[in-house]
Design a protein that fits this description.
The chain contains 5 helices and 2 strands; from the N terminus they run H-H-H-E-E-H-H. By secondary structure, the protein is mainly alpha-helical. It has one domain. Helix 2 packs antiparallel against helix 3 and helix 3 runs antiparallel to helix 4. The radius of gyration is 25 Å and the shape is elongated.
Amino acid sequence: MTLGVLFGHRLDALALLHLLGNAAKYYTIAAVVYLLASGFSKIGVGLVLLRLTSNSDMRGMRWFLAGCITTTAAWFLGGALVFALQCRPLSKAWDLSGAAPGTCMPASTIGTAGIVVSAGDVFFTTVSTLMTIIRLKYVITVAKMTAETGIAGPGIVNTTLEATM
């Protein structure tokens, strides 16, 4: 559209409305796909961390991670549903003429849902980052071992137990 205007091509109002309608359609689809993909990636990190704690004696950590995974799944699925079901039928969301039949949620509800999902995204990212840093601390400790404290050293059992959380 911008190049057409730049080179002197005129767009009539109907063509412009069609382009804006397509933009709204693709934005709605992209928002739903983004929320689902973001949720899946955070769940994947949580599952890796849960697997790393499977042989440890920290039952509370495993319950915490399982709770975070479950909450993440519900959080992002709920956000995706809000954006996917913002209008009934969904085609009303990108109908800019206002002629399409159906109803939509108030814009304030969709905006609030976006803020809540973003806050959850920040929280779950922070938790998964902190858990990964804790895990890496022990990996670095094992990598820095010398010959005296290496694999056959007396401190390896304690370090290995700590590394598995």
